[in-house]
Amino acid sequence: MSDASGNSPIVHHLSTRTGIDAEELAGRSFPYQHDLALVENVDLIASTPGKDLNWLEDVSLLVEDGVPAVFDRYSNSFLKIHFPIPPGREDEIARKVLITHLQSGNSYGIILKRKHAKFPQPELGPWVDGSDLVGQDWKPSVLEGWESPSGH
Amino acid sequence: MAEGSSQRVTYDARGLSEPTVETPKVSQIDGDRAVFDAGPLTTRQINRELRWLVYEEGVHDVTITNPGAKHSLGVAILTRCTITFEGSLGYFGCGLIDGPEIHITGRVGWSFGENMMSGVVVIDKNAGSLTGAAFRGGDLVVKGDVGARTGIDQKGGTILVGGNGGMNIGFMMQRGRQIYCGNVGPGLGDSMYDGSIYVAGSVKSLGIDCVEAEFTPADKEMIDRKFAIYDFGTPPAFRKFTCGRQLWNYDNLEPSERKLVL
User: Fold this and answer.
1) What angle do CA B108, B114, B116 make, to 5 degrees?
2) Domains of chain A: which residue ranges?
3) Does A48 lie at the interface with B, CB-CB under 8 angstroms?
4) Residue A63: what are its φ and ψ, rounded to 5°?
5) How far is B82 from chain A (nearest CA, A)?
6) pLDDT digits (tens, 9 = 90+) for B18-44
C-alpha cells in the first residue's frame, strides 16, 4: 500500500507467520538473550520448587526460525537465544535464559497481568518472592451503549 | 480455633454458591508460619484465608486442619510456599497451582492437581480418578492408589504412584512421566501422543498406540532421583511404555505444537 505521494508508508504490525516470538510480543529483545554471562549464575534448583528441577525438567532447547530458542509457556512464545551455546549445556542454558526472562518480569504474560489479572496474585508469580499483588481491582470492561438482553 | 461461620452456602446452577465472601482472618500467625481450622469455614473462606496468608501476610508455611474433604481447596496458589492439609480433600483440590509444595495427610477426590503448573504435592493415601488431569509440570506424588484416567491429557511433570493405577492411565497423554510401583488396569496409555509411563507391576492391557519401549539409563537416573527425593526406598524393576506414533497426525497449521512434542 502507498500514500497519495506514492511513497510506501512505514507500517508497524505483527508478522503473519505462524510462530510466536517473545521479542515480537514485547517489541524488543533482552540483554540476556545476547550474553551468556548474564545467565551463567542462575541457580536453577533454587529457582524452582522441590529438590530437583521440577517443571524445568520438561524445558529443553528448541529451534525457532533456525535460531536456538526456549519456549515460554507463560506467553506461548519462543524466546530466541542469540549467543553461542557451549556444547553439552544446551538445555541448561535454555532453562537459565527462561528463568531470567520470568524473574525479570519481561514475559508478555506477566506484562498483561497488571491490566487483565482477574483475581489477586503476585505479579512475578513463583519466580520472585514478595512481588507486588495485581488483580485486586479488576472490573469487566463495559461497551458503551450496550445493554444486556431482557431476561439476562 | 476459628469462630463459627455465619456464611450461608446455597446451591446455584451457575456455581455461584458463595457470590460474596469476606476473608475470615482467623489464622494463628507465628512469624512466617500460620495454622487455621477449616472445619467451620466454607470453601471460599478457606481459599481466601489461604491466599491472604501467602500473598499479603508474608506467611510461607500454612497448616490447615480439618479440611473435611471439602471440594476445590487450595486452588490457584501462584507463589512459592509450603501448605499442609491435615486430613482429606474432595474433588478438584489444589488445581491450577504454580509453585507451592503441598502435603496432604489423607485422601483426595477426583481431578486432584488439575492443570498444575509447577510445585510439589505429596498425598499420603489414595487419590481418585483423573488425578493430575491436564497436568503441566512439577511432581505429584501419591503414596496409595490412583483411579482411572490418571494423568489424562498430561502435558508435563511427573506423577509418582506408590500403589496401583486404574483403567486408561495416561489417556491422551502428551508429555511428562508417570511411575507406578504397583499394577495398572486396562487401556494403559490409550491414545497417548508422547511421554513415558513406567510400571513395576502387571499391566492389564495396553491402550491404542501404546507400546513397550527400551528402559534407558536416563530413565533409571530419573526414577532413582525421584525415589530418593520422596523416600520411596529402593526402586523395583520397571517396564517403560510410550507412544507407538501410529496416531500422530499433525497438519501444517500446527508447527509449534509439533515442534514441542517432538
Assistant:
1) 110
2) 22-114
3) yes
4) -130, 130
5) 10
6) 777 899 999 999 999 999 999 999 999
pLDDT tens figures, B105-116: 999 999 999 999
At B49 the pLDDT is 97
Inter-chain touch A51–B56, beta carbons under 8 Å: no
What span, in angstroms and rounded, lies between the C-alpha atoms of B82 and B175? Answer: 26
B28-30: strand order across its sheet: B28-30, B33-37, B61-65, B82-86, B98-104, B118-123, B139-142, B155-161, B175-180, B196-199, B239-243, B210-213
- Calculate what percentage of chain B has a pLDDT beyond 90: 85
| Chain A residues touching residue B76 (CB < 8 angstroms) | 119, 121
User: Which chain B residues have a beta carbon less than 8 Å from that of A58?
Assistant: 137, 156-157, 175-176
pTM of the model: 0.90
pLDDT of B260 reads 59
Q: Which of A34, A131, A119, A14 is nearest to A77 (CA)?
A: A14
- Percentage of residues in chain B with pLDDT exceeding 70? 89
Number of domains in chain B: 1
Q: Is the pLDDT of residue B178 over 50?
A: yes
Res. B204: pLDDT tops 70: yes
Phi and psi at B217, nearest 5°, equal -60, -35
Q: Which domain holds residue B110?
A: 1-125
CA distances from A139 to A136, B15, B180 (A): 9, 20, 45
Nearest CA in chain B to A76: B256
Q: Cell 541457580 sits at which residue?
A: A43
Interchain CB distance below 8 Å, A125 and B158: no
Instruction: Give the ipTM.
Output: 0.90
- In this complex, do A50 and B256 lie within 8 Å of one another by their Cβ atoms? no
By the CB < 8 Å criterion, does A109 face chain B? no
| Single-letter residue type at B111 | S
Least confidently predicted of A22-26, B124-128, B222-226: A22-26
**Grid cell listed for B246:** 501410529
